[in-house]
Prior knowledge:
β2 and β3 (13-14) form a beta hairpin. This protein has one helix at 28-33, and strands spanning 2-3, 6-7, 13-14, 17-18, 21-22, 40-41. By secondary structure, the protein is mainly beta.
Amino acid sequence: MLGLGEFDEDGNVNISHLGGKFYGVGGFIDISQLIDKISFCFRKKKALKRLSHISFRASDKRC
């Protein structure tokens, strides 16, 4: 289970560019490439129409 900053209606996730600041992805890429399933934990909020940056593209994956 990983945290996220924002997500869009297609399930794409941004974890690195938030509030005009760049935080980086840390070990997120390594983790997401080595597992079969991934879950994201976040505070309940509305999905965005468009992300400022896509760190994980769920539209290419089975959800």
